[in-house]
Amino acid sequence: MVGEKGKKEAATLVVKEFEEVLSDARIIGVGTGSTVSIIVDLLVSQGMLDDKIVVPSSIDTAMKLSSKGIAVTDPMTVETIDAYIDGADEVDPYGNMVKGRGAALLGEKMLAYKSRVNIFVVDESKIVDKLGSMKPVPIEVHRWMLRTVEKVVRDMGYDYSFRSGGKDGPVISDFCGVIMDLYTGPISDPYGLEDRLRSIPGLVETGLFLGYADYVVVGWDKGGGEVRKHSRSRGAGYNI
Ligand code: 5RP
Question: What pTM did the predictor assign?
Answer without folding.
Answer: 0.97
